[in-house]
Amino acid sequence: MRIKQGFKLRTVGKEYIVAGEGLAQIDFNKLISLNGSAAYLWEKVEGKDFGVQTLADLLVSKYDIPAGEALTDAADIAKSWIDAGIVEE
After folding, report:
1. In Å, how far are 20, 22, 23, 54, 82 from 50, measured between CA atoms?
2. Which helix (DSSP H) or strand (DSSP E) does residue 89 occupy?
3. What is the mean pLDDT of the chain?
4. Whole domain around residue 81: which residue ranges?
5. Strand-pair partners of 3
6. Rounded distance, CA 35 to CA 33, Å?
7. DSSP letters of 21-88?
8. pLDDT tens digits for 42-62?
């Protein structure tokens, strides 16, 4: 997977928002809100190829949670990003 070009993470107050920028995202009229964990993952994988396991490993190292829980959470986050159209497989 890879974050699609033209999508940027912004901080608005205490909120993390992903928004499309530039002509390539002209039809994208949504703002995607991320929680702190998802924003952390976004920052770590931005500009890189990654998989669900990469996200899970990052969650384990940052939050010291069990690997199985991290893998489930990472899969959910990846699916939500794909469904929103901000990540390409």
Report:
1. 20, 24, 25, 6, 13
2. none
3. 91
4. 2-88
5. 87
6. 7
7. -SGGGTT---EEEE-HHHHHHHHHHTTS---HHHHHHHHHHHH---HHHHHHHHHHHHHHHHHHTSEE
8. 999 999 999 999 999 999 999
With tokens 């969650």, the residue in question is: 59
Q: Global pTM?
A: 0.90
Count of domains observed in the chain: 1
Angle subtended at Cα 68 by Cα 63 and Cα 73, rounded to the nearest 5 degrees: 65
Burial of 44 (C-beta count, 10 Å sphere; 0-12/13-18/19+): middle
Distances (CA, A) of 12 to 15, 16, 58: 5, 6, 24
Amino acid at position 60, single letter: V
CATH value at residue 75: 1.10.10.1150
**pLDDT tens-digit readout, 60-69:** 999 999 999 9
